[in-house]
Amino acid sequence: MRNLKTEPQIDAGAYDPQSDGDLFRQFTRHGDQETFAQLLVRHGPYLLGVCRRVTAHAQDAEDVFQAAFLELVRNRASISRADSVAGWLQTVVVRLGHKARARRARRQQKEGSSMIDKGTVTADDVSWGEVRQVVDEEVARLPDELRGPIILCLFEGRTQEEAGAYLKMNPRTIKARVARARELLQKRLMRRGISLAALGALLAGSNPHVALSAPLLQATLRGAIAVVKQTAVAGVVSPSVLVLTSSSSLLAGWGIAAATVLGLALSAAVGLVVWESAGSARVRPVVRQSFLGGQFDDEFFEWSGPTPESYVRREDEGLRIKLPAENGPIMPVGVKVRPIVRGDFEAEAAFEFLDVPRPETSPGAGVTVYFFMDDDEWHGLYFGKMNDKQRGPVFISGQRVGKREERITKFAEVVQSGNESGIFRLRVVREGALFKLYAAEGTTGDFQHVQTTECSSDDLRIVRFATDWGPHPGVPMDVRLLSFDMTVDEFIGYKPLSE
Question: Whole-model pTM?
Answer without folding.
Answer: 0.50
